[in-house]
């Protein structure tokens, strides 16, 4: 409950940019601000309560929808080893083609879809496309020829294109910079863990083989599609708008206008970009001149290439490389993703607490490098399976880390929209790479794919080193008053 305006000594008013689970700046610096005449003053406990109220509504609902997105695009290998490869005669590169075409429309339509998220509103737009791709996923269960999957995957990519960049953009507008990684990890982690355990669900659905005249792999597509339709309806009911717009709407049971005002004030104190900016295409497109955006995109590409390779080929690797049976291969996909979820949360907590991103990315790249070497150049199945644990933890934990790294080092609503689309677009290109460099003819060792992923890990370390050198030099110049960063004299780059 907000208290009326009082003396700063009586109430701890903390509206720096570091609220959240750690509240580092508030506890260490005890920074206070005078409240505006009409602004309520919130105690430390009340501020924490507001932030977690947003977490429960925004991160949970957005994460549930993304959970279905990841399961829908990654249930292809589970269906494949459940009999789809035989029934649809997926010989040669047919499986790779089906995996690949999704990313054609997924990459192309991300920039306009991100703009539509802002124009139409996230609740309407993001929920609508979720409902649409759920219906498409149901259609997968009724194909009779392998090539019929190609247009369906193209349409699936079209509808899914808007969700991830739109959700990333939406989350970035509600939280300050050092709240980001934990929230991105929570959002992405819901999808990651569910995606890993989708193999167990797929194994159960496979047992319905013959029921209703449908093969087991068709049941996988049908049930996953219906779950996505339900998630879309959930979004219509509970997904929230941008905070600068939500201030003028009634969210009964969520946050009131005074609480949203608090959110906007703390974001403005953190990076001065909470207010809605008038639409300016030239300003949006000019964001592409910032070299940092493309470096962050390259880093995202490096992690997502490995993540998509695992998503599309892990059951196949477990069966064809490590020699497990069909059921074992589906069930054994879950533990590496469970480990990845734990590591992701740990990295997110540490990154937000220490206000660091680059060192964590380097650590995860080294972890991935070790995992790849174990998978390729060792013999015991247990050791190679352990390598999969390290690889899954590395690439999947790195994704929210790069998302926070980028979000911490840019300012402005339209630049944020451009950067979100670019980042996720680079991830889509990573999906293309991940679905092509692991080829069926390279079984059992997948030397080409593993070598490509090793190159990605090395590139991650080099780009972080470059960023650290440049960001450190520019921060020092800004401290001396010789340079203004991102149009704000108080802004400093996060290393």
From TrEMBL:
Q: Which Pfam families match?
A: MFS_1 (PF07690)
**GO cellular component term of the entry, any:** membrane
Q: What is its main location?
A: membrane
Q: Which UniProt keywords apply?
A: Membrane, Transmembrane, Transmembrane helix, Transport
Q: Which residues form the Major facilitator superfamily (MFS) profile domain?
A: 58-474
Record flagged with keyword Transmembrane: yes
Q: Report the protein name in the record.
A: MFS general substrate transporter
The species this protein belongs to is: Decorospora gaudefroyi
């Amino acid at each position: 409950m907000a208290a009326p305006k009082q003396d700063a000594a009586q109430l701890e008013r903390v509206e720096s940019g570091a609220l959240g689970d750690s509240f580092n700046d508030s506890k260490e610096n005890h920074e206070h601000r005078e409240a505006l005449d009409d602004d309520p003053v919130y105690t430390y406990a009340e501020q924490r309560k507001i932030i977690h109220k947003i977490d429960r509504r925004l991160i949970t609902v957005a994460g549930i929808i993304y959970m279905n997105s990841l399961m829908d695009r990654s249930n292809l290998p589970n269906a494949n080893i459940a009999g789809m490869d035989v029934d649809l005669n997926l010989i040669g590169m047919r499986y790779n083609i089906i995996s690949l075409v999704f990313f054609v429309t997924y990459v192309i339509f991300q920039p306009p879809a991100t703009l539509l998220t802002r124009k139409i509103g996230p609740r309407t737009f993001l929920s609508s496309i979720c409902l649409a791709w759920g219906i498409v996923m149901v259609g997968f269960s009724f194909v009779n020829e392998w090539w019929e999957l190609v247009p369906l995957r193209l349409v699936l990519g079209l509808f899914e294109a808007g969700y991830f960049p739109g959700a990333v953009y939406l989350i970035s507008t509600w939280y300050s910079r050092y709240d980001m990684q934990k929230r991105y990890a929570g959002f992405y982690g819901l999808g990651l863990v569910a995606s890993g355990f989708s193999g167990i669900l797929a194994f159960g659905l496979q047992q319905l083989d013959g029921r209703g005249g449908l093969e087991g792999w068709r049941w996988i597509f049908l049930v996953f599609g219906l779950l996505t339709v339900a998630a879309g309806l959930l979004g219509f009911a509970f997904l929230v708008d941008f905070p600068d717009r939500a201030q003028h709407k009634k969210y009964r049971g969520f946050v009131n206008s005074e609480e949203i005002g608090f959110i906007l004030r703390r974001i403005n104190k953190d990076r001065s970009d909470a207010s809605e900016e008038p639409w300016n295409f030239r300003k949006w497109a000019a964001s592409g001149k910032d070299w940092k955006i493309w470096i962050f995109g390259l880093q995202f590409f490096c992690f997502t290439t490995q993540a998509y390779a695992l998503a599309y080929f892990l059951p196949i690797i477990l069966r064809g490389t490590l020699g497990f049976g069909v059921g074992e291969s589906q069930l054994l996909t879950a533990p590496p993703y469970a480990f990845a979820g734990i590591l992701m949360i740990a990295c997110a907590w540490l990154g937000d607490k220490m206000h660091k991103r680059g060192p964590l990315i380097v650590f995860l790249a080294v972890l991935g490098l070790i995992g790849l070497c174990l998978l390729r150049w060792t013999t015991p199945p247990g050791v190679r399976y352990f390598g999969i644990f390290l690889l899954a933890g590395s690439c999947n934990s790195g994704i929210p880390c790069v998302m926070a790294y980028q979000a911490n080092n840019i300012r402005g609503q339209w630049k944020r929209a451009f950067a979100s689309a670019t980042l996720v677009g680079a991830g889509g290109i990573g999906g293309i790479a991940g679905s092509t460099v692991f080829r069926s003819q390279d079984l059992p060792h997948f030397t080409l794919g593993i070598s490509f992923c090793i190159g990605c890990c090395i590139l991650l370390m080099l780009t972080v080193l470059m960023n650290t050198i440049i960001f450190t030099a520019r921060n020092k110049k800004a401290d001396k008053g010789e340079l203004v960063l991102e149009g704000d004299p108080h802004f400093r780059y996060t290393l």
